[in-house]
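Task card 7
Instruction: Convert sequence to C-alpha coordinates.
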Amino acid sequence: MTCGRFIALEGGEGAGKSTQARLLAQALTRRGVASRITREPGGTAGAEAIRALLLGSEGEGWHARAEALLFAAARSDHVERLIRPALAAGEWVICDRFVDSSRAYQGGAGGLSDDDVMQLHRIGSEGLLPDLTLLFEIDPAKASQRLIARDGGSSDRIGGRGAAYHAGVAAAFARFAAAEPQRFARIDANGDQDTVAADVLAALVPLLSAG
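Output:
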Protein backbone atom coordinates (compact mmCIF):
# COMPACT_ATOMS: atom_id res chain seq x y z
CA MET A 1 0.00 0.00 0.00
CA THR A 2 1.25 3.48 -0.89
CA CYS A 3 1.94 5.68 2.11
CA GLY A 4 -0.17 8.80 2.33
CA ARG A 5 0.97 12.41 2.27
CA PHE A 6 0.94 14.87 5.12
CA ILE A 7 -0.03 18.47 4.27
CA ALA A 8 -0.07 21.21 6.90
CA LEU A 9 -1.78 24.56 6.45
CA GLU A 10 -0.16 27.40 8.36
CA GLY A 11 -0.57 31.14 8.71
CA GLY A 12 -2.05 33.80 10.93
CA GLU A 13 -5.62 34.42 11.99
CA GLY A 14 -8.12 35.02 9.18
CA ALA A 15 -5.92 33.65 6.40
CA GLY A 16 -8.56 31.17 5.22
CA LYS A 17 -6.87 27.92 6.22
CA SER A 18 -10.07 26.10 7.19
CA THR A 19 -11.77 26.99 3.92
CA GLN A 20 -8.76 25.94 1.88
CA ALA A 21 -8.48 22.65 3.80
CA ARG A 22 -12.05 21.84 2.81
CA LEU A 23 -11.52 22.83 -0.82
CA LEU A 24 -8.32 20.80 -1.00
CA ALA A 25 -10.04 17.70 0.36
CA GLN A 26 -12.76 18.10 -2.27
CA ALA A 27 -10.16 18.47 -5.02
CA LEU A 28 -8.34 15.35 -3.86
CA THR A 29 -11.61 13.40 -3.80
CA ARG A 30 -12.25 14.36 -7.42
CA ARG A 31 -8.84 12.90 -8.22
CA GLY A 32 -9.62 9.67 -6.41
CA VAL A 33 -7.27 10.45 -3.50
CA ALA A 34 -8.50 9.51 -0.03
CA SER A 35 -7.96 12.29 2.50
CA ARG A 36 -9.03 13.51 5.87
CA ILE A 37 -9.10 16.97 7.42
CA THR A 38 -7.92 17.51 10.96
CA ARG A 39 -6.72 20.39 13.09
CA GLU A 40 -4.38 21.45 15.87
CA PRO A 41 -4.78 21.55 18.67
CA GLY A 42 -7.35 18.80 18.28
CA GLY A 43 -8.10 15.85 16.08
CA THR A 44 -8.49 13.30 18.89
CA ALA A 45 -10.60 13.29 22.03
CA GLY A 46 -7.61 13.98 24.26
CA ALA A 47 -6.22 16.70 22.03
CA GLU A 48 -9.64 18.39 21.77
CA ALA A 49 -9.81 18.48 25.58
CA ILE A 50 -6.42 20.21 25.64
CA ARG A 51 -7.68 22.62 22.95
CA ALA A 52 -10.44 23.74 25.30
CA LEU A 53 -7.86 24.41 28.01
CA LEU A 54 -5.66 26.41 25.65
CA LEU A 55 -8.19 28.48 23.75
CA GLY A 56 -11.16 28.80 26.11
CA SER A 57 -11.85 32.08 27.85
CA GLU A 58 -12.02 30.68 31.39
CA GLY A 59 -9.14 31.12 33.82
CA GLU A 60 -6.08 33.34 33.67
CA GLY A 61 -4.45 31.74 30.63
CA TRP A 62 -1.02 30.19 30.20
CA HIS A 63 2.49 31.49 29.85
CA ALA A 64 4.49 30.56 26.73
CA ARG A 65 6.26 27.55 28.26
CA ALA A 66 3.03 26.04 29.57
CA GLU A 67 1.36 26.68 26.21
CA ALA A 68 4.20 24.95 24.39
CA LEU A 69 3.96 21.92 26.68
CA LEU A 70 0.20 21.67 26.23
CA PHE A 71 0.42 22.02 22.46
CA ALA A 72 3.15 19.37 22.36
CA ALA A 73 1.04 16.99 24.44
CA ALA A 74 -2.01 17.50 22.21
CA ARG A 75 0.12 17.02 19.11
CA SER A 76 1.66 13.83 20.47
CA ASP A 77 -1.77 12.23 20.91
CA HIS A 78 -2.89 13.54 17.52
CA VAL A 79 0.15 12.10 15.74
CA GLU A 80 -0.02 8.73 17.51
CA ARG A 81 -3.75 8.12 17.22
CA LEU A 82 -4.74 9.83 13.97
CA ILE A 83 -1.99 11.16 11.72
CA ARG A 84 0.43 8.22 11.57
CA PRO A 85 -2.34 5.59 11.21
CA ALA A 86 -4.00 7.58 8.41
CA LEU A 87 -0.71 7.98 6.55
CA ALA A 88 0.04 4.27 6.95
CA ALA A 89 -3.37 3.51 5.46
CA GLY A 90 -2.49 5.55 2.36
CA GLU A 91 -4.59 8.62 3.15
CA TRP A 92 -3.58 12.23 2.67
CA VAL A 93 -3.80 14.11 5.96
CA ILE A 94 -4.71 17.79 5.67
CA CYS A 95 -3.95 19.45 8.99
CA ASP A 96 -5.02 22.98 9.93
CA ARG A 97 -1.83 23.96 11.84
CA PHE A 98 1.00 21.75 13.05
CA VAL A 99 4.37 22.25 14.76
CA ASP A 100 5.27 25.39 12.81
CA SER A 101 2.43 27.17 14.61
CA SER A 102 4.07 26.35 17.93
CA ARG A 103 7.36 27.62 16.52
CA ALA A 104 5.68 30.88 15.45
CA TYR A 105 3.28 31.51 18.32
CA GLN A 106 5.06 30.20 21.41
CA GLY A 107 8.50 30.57 19.83
CA GLY A 108 8.79 33.58 17.54
CA ALA A 109 6.08 35.70 19.18
CA GLY A 110 6.10 34.10 22.63
CA GLY A 111 9.82 34.25 23.28
CA LEU A 112 10.76 30.57 23.46
CA SER A 113 13.71 29.38 21.43
CA ASP A 114 13.08 27.37 18.31
CA ASP A 115 15.34 24.64 19.70
CA ASP A 116 13.14 24.30 22.79
CA VAL A 117 9.93 24.04 20.75
CA MET A 118 11.46 21.47 18.42
CA GLN A 119 12.88 19.47 21.33
CA LEU A 120 9.35 19.11 22.70
CA HIS A 121 8.25 18.02 19.25
CA ARG A 122 11.02 15.43 19.03
CA ILE A 123 9.99 14.01 22.40
CA GLY A 124 6.24 14.08 21.84
CA SER A 125 5.88 13.31 18.15
CA GLU A 126 9.26 11.84 17.17
CA GLY A 127 9.97 14.93 15.07
CA LEU A 128 7.32 14.23 12.43
CA LEU A 129 7.18 16.96 9.77
CA PRO A 130 4.71 17.48 6.93
CA ASP A 131 5.60 16.52 3.37
CA LEU A 132 4.55 20.05 2.45
CA THR A 133 3.58 23.06 4.53
CA LEU A 134 1.33 25.60 2.84
CA LEU A 135 1.92 29.03 4.37
CA PHE A 136 -1.04 31.36 3.79
CA GLU A 137 0.13 34.97 3.90
CA ILE A 138 -2.42 37.78 4.11
CA ASP A 139 -2.48 41.52 4.68
CA PRO A 140 -3.35 42.16 8.36
CA ALA A 141 -6.13 44.62 7.50
CA LYS A 142 -7.78 42.10 5.18
CA ALA A 143 -7.43 39.38 7.80
CA SER A 144 -9.17 41.63 10.34
CA GLN A 145 -12.05 42.23 7.93
CA ARG A 146 -12.47 38.50 7.43
CA LEU A 147 -12.39 37.81 11.17
CA ILE A 148 -15.04 40.45 11.86
CA ALA A 149 -17.24 38.99 9.11
CA ARG A 150 -16.70 35.45 10.40
CA ASP A 151 -16.70 35.88 14.17
CA GLY A 152 -18.25 39.28 14.78
CA GLY A 153 -15.01 40.50 16.30
CA SER A 154 -14.76 37.76 18.94
CA SER A 155 -11.59 35.68 19.18
CA ASP A 156 -10.20 32.80 21.16
CA ARG A 157 -7.59 33.42 23.85
CA ILE A 158 -4.60 33.32 21.49
CA GLY A 159 -6.27 34.88 18.46
CA GLY A 160 -7.32 37.86 20.57
CA ARG A 161 -3.78 38.92 21.40
CA GLY A 162 -2.52 42.27 20.19
CA ALA A 163 -1.28 43.36 16.77
CA ALA A 164 2.38 43.30 17.81
CA TYR A 165 2.08 39.66 18.87
CA HIS A 166 0.49 38.65 15.58
CA ALA A 167 3.08 40.63 13.63
CA GLY A 168 5.71 38.55 15.42
CA VAL A 169 3.87 35.39 14.40
CA ALA A 170 3.81 36.46 10.74
CA ALA A 171 7.49 37.38 10.81
CA ALA A 172 8.38 33.99 12.31
CA PHE A 173 6.43 32.12 9.64
CA ALA A 174 8.19 34.12 6.94
CA ARG A 175 11.59 33.21 8.41
CA PHE A 176 10.72 29.51 8.47
CA ALA A 177 9.58 29.55 4.86
CA ALA A 178 12.72 31.36 3.74
CA ALA A 179 14.94 28.91 5.63
CA GLU A 180 13.17 25.74 4.40
CA PRO A 181 11.93 26.43 0.85
CA GLN A 182 11.88 22.69 0.10
CA ARG A 183 9.18 22.14 2.74
CA PHE A 184 7.18 25.37 2.50
CA ALA A 185 5.00 26.72 -0.30
CA ARG A 186 4.06 30.36 0.22
CA ILE A 187 0.47 31.10 -0.81
CA ASP A 188 -0.91 34.61 -1.36
CA ALA A 189 -4.13 34.41 0.67
CA ASN A 190 -5.41 37.88 -0.26
CA GLY A 191 -7.38 36.72 -3.31
CA ASP A 192 -10.77 35.05 -3.58
CA GLN A 193 -11.04 31.47 -2.38
CA ASP A 194 -11.04 29.92 -5.86
CA THR A 195 -7.85 31.73 -6.87
CA VAL A 196 -6.15 30.69 -3.65
CA ALA A 197 -7.37 27.09 -4.10
CA ALA A 198 -5.83 27.01 -7.59
CA ASP A 199 -2.51 28.18 -6.15
CA VAL A 200 -2.72 25.44 -3.52
CA LEU A 201 -3.22 22.75 -6.16
CA ALA A 202 -0.35 24.16 -8.20
CA ALA A 203 1.91 23.86 -5.16
CA LEU A 204 0.85 20.21 -4.76
CA VAL A 205 1.61 19.15 -8.33
CA PRO A 206 4.96 17.50 -7.44
CA LEU A 207 3.35 15.37 -4.74
CA LEU A 208 0.34 14.50 -6.90
CA SER A 209 2.60 13.57 -9.78
CA ALA A 210 4.71 11.34 -7.55
CA GLY A 211 1.62 9.28 -6.71
